[in-house]
Amino acid sequence: MLVMKSIKEVIAVFIVAVCLIGTSVQFSSHNSGEYSETRLPPDSYQMELHELHAPIPMKDRVSNHTFIQCVYSSIEMIGRWAEEPKLVSPPITSRWNCKTGSSPGTAGRRLRAIGVQFYQVTNKKQGRALLHRAVAIEGRGALFDIPGHAMVILHFDRVKGIVGYVNNSERRTLKVHLITMEDFEKMWGGWVLVVFADNDIVTAKAMAARSNKNPPSDDPTNPGEFNLRDIFPR
C-alpha cells in the first residue's frame, strides 16, 4: 500500500509539473522575457540608417524596459515613426492594459479599442508579402515575432537576402541588426503587424530619408502571394 501510494504521489507531481511547464510555454509564446542576444543570429552586414527601407531614427525607437511589453514597445515604435497620435499621446506602453505580454488577438483588440488602423497576418506566406509591401515598398516598419519575443523590422530585401531589425530588449542601444534572410526565416514565427496613421505620411517620410529613392519592384517574387494593394486600408 505504501509503495502504491508513493507511486501515485510521484505520478501526481509529474503531471502537475508537466501542466505548469505547458502553461509557461503557452503564456510566453508572444510575450517577452529578457531576451538574450546569444539566442539571436549574428549580424552579417553593415548599413547606414539612410540605406534602410524604413529608416526609423533613434528618437522613435522604444525600449521594452519592463521586459514583458515587447509587443506594445514594437507597436509604439512603428506608431511613432508613422506619427499616429493614438499610439503616442499617451504612449501605448503607458496604458494600463498594455503593461503586459500580448498576442495577435489581444493586440488587435487593443488597437481596435483606441481606433488605430492596422493590418496583421500570422502565417509566413502572407507575412513575406506584407513585409515586402509595408517595409521594402512603403517604408513603414513592422512588428514581427520570434519564439517568446516581438521586435521591429526596418529592412526587408528579398533580392539581396538582407533583413534589418531592432530588438527592443536591448534597452541601452536599440541598434539595427542586419542578418541573412535564411537566418530570419529560421527564427521568425510568422506574425507580422503594421499600422496606418489617419494622416498617412510615413511613406513620404521614408522616401525623403532614403539614399535610394527607387524602392524595390512591387511585383512579388512568389506568384502565389496575394496582392496587398487590394486589401491595405487607405
Please, could you describe this protein's structure?
The protein has 234 residues and is α+β, with helices and mostly antiparallel strands. It has one domain: Cysteine proteinases (Cathepsin B, Chain A, Alpha-Beta Complex), CATH 3.90.70.10. The protein contains 7 helices and 6 strands; from the N terminus they run H-H-H-H-E-H-E-E-E-E-H-E-H. It has helices spanning 2-27, 70-82, 85-88, 104-113, 124-137, 181-187, 202-209, and strands spanning 117-121, 142-146, 149-157, 162-166, 176-180, 192-196. The protein has a 6-stranded antiparallel β-sheet with strand order 1-6-2-3-4-5, with helices on both faces. A hairpin with a 2-residue loop joins strand 2 (142-146) and strand 3. It is globular, with a radius of gyration of 20 Å. Mean pLDDT is 82; it is low at 10-38 and 220-227.
